[in-house]
Every structure is written in C-alpha cells, then in structure tokens.
Design brief:
This protein is α+β, with helices and mostly antiparallel strands. It contains 10 helices and 8 strands. It has a 6-stranded antiparallel beta sheet with strand order 5-4-3-8-7-6, with helices on both faces. Helix 2 packs across helix 4, helix 6 packs antiparallel against helix 10 and helix 7 packs across helix 9.
C-alpha cells in the first residue's frame, strides 16, 4: 500500500496543471536566451514531446507572449510580460508621482502635457494635464497612439536596447491614421534623439503643433515612459513662454521623474 504523501508533496500533486507548466517552462527558457530558439531546440532542452511543444508555442504566439523571427524558424519572448509587470501597481505609482510634476509644468509652461508608456505594439496615454489657458491641445487619457510616427513613440524606441527595439517593432500594429515610415529613416531619427536626449518635431497628426518629448529613464537608462508637450505658439498679443522655455521646463520635469540623473 502506498504511503500517504506529506503536506508539501500533497500540495504539489494536488494542484498540478501540466499544460500550464509546459507554457511556463517555455517562457522561463526563452527568458534566458538572447537570440531565441528553434522549436527543435526548445523540445530538446525541455525534454518534451515535439507535438505538444508545437501546440503550446502556437498558443503562446497567438496570445502574444512569444514572437517568431521574421524567417519564422526561431521563437523569442515578446514584451507582453514586461508590459503586464509594469502595469499595476508600479504603473499606478508612476502616475501618482507624475501628475503633480505634470501639473506644475502645465501651469508654468501654459501648455498641456501627457505621459505615455509602451503597451503591446503601440503607446498608451496614462496621464494627461491641460494647460491653464483658454486655448490648448490635449491627447485623451487612455488613447492608444502610434509607435512609429509620434514623438513619444520614437523617444521610447530611441532609449531602448537594439534587441528590445526589434521586439517592439515586431509587435507593432498601426493605429488609425498612422504614417508608414522607412526603417532607415526611423533608425536615423532614433540615433539623433539619443544624441540630443529628447525629440522636438512638427506633429505628424496636427498642423501648427510642435511635439516636444523627453524620456523618463529607468535605472538601466532605458525609457520607461515618454513625457510630451504638444506645444502651440500664441500669435496674439499675449506673451506666453517660448518653446525654448518649454523645452527647459519639460527637461526638468522628466529628469525629476527619472530614476537616473546626470
């Protein structure tokens, strides 16, 4: 007669979920790889059946936890787990810390400002503050904006590792109205933004607006978010802060929220 399991053994056996274990094994294995793995390599390294690995990989790709290489023969982690890990509660903490800083900027610059983070192939606006004046432009809270053709998107791409940038671009799906851009132009733009430390460019969505964007940098120097002011220049007799003033103020705001400092 078999002996009774101990409490620890009983818990391990009672709550086993083989399919879930297989999926987690794949995610943990891929997290240790820099260049991804083929299905055959994954099967061999995990000691699993080839057909069950095929089915599990297909589900992980369908749910966007894993991406295939452009050639289709290698698998690597997407940024979905990264996005999930940074959504709650760290995201709530980021918003609560950012809003007072954004409000002070908006009052001083007399411009609106919004904060965006990378989320599943595009950007998500997680905080927005309007300027104090009668006129202004703002991006609606919760909006998804383009990764390729916005200042926020390009700043996030610019301050990422080459590997993570490739993952982001692989996950990217166009939002409504997003402009297609040549990859060489995008790479050159990202290089220029890294060298300058920020982005200043005419909006590709609205005439008369200059988007000024600074990164919020994490401990490793990568962008965890992008702080953007859609600057509108007054042409009446009212003397508002100049765009140079606004750039300096936004730089200070972003630096105060970053985890590394000059």
């Amino acid at each position: 007669m078999a002996s009774e399991p101990t409490d620890n053994d009983g818990d391990a056996d009672r709550y086993r979920a083989p399919a879930l274990d297989k999926g987690l094994d794949i995610l943990e294995l891929l997290s240790e790889q820099k260049s991804g793995l083929t299905r055959a390599e994954i099967t061999k390294m995990l000691g699993r059946n080839a057909s069950e690995m095929y089915r599990m990989l297909e589900r992980l790709v369908a749910r966007q936890y894993v991406v295939r290489s452009p050639e289709g023969d290698r698998y690597s982690l997407s940024l979905k787990l990264y996005a999930l890990a940074h959504r709650h509660p760290p995201m709530n903490r980021l918003i609560s810390e950012a809003l007072p800083v954004m409000q002070r900027f908006a009052d001083a610059a007399e411009q609106s400002v919004h904060l965006a983070v990378y989320d599943r192939g595009n950007l998500l606006v997680i905080a927005q503050v309007d300027g104090p004046g009668t006129w202004g432009i703002s991006v609606r809270l919760g909006s998804r904006v383009g990764l390729i053709d916005t200042g926020s998107g390009r700043v996030i791409l610019a301050f990422e590792t080459d590997e993570r940038r490739e993952h982001m671009l692989a996950e990217h799906t166009k939002v409504k109205g997003e402009i297609t851009l040549d990859r060489a132009v995008l790479d050159a733009d990202c290089q220029q933004i890294r060298e300058a430390g920020y982005s200043k460019r005419e909006s590709q969505q609205t005439f008369g607006v200059t988007d000024v964007t600074f990164p919020l940098l994490g401990p490793s120097g990568q962008a965890i978010a992008a702080l953007t002011c859609p600057y509108m220049r007054r042409i009446d007799e009212y003397v508002a802060p100049s765009i140079d003033d606004v750039i300096a103020q936004l730089k200070d705001a972003a630096a105060s929220l970053s985890m590394i400092h000059d």
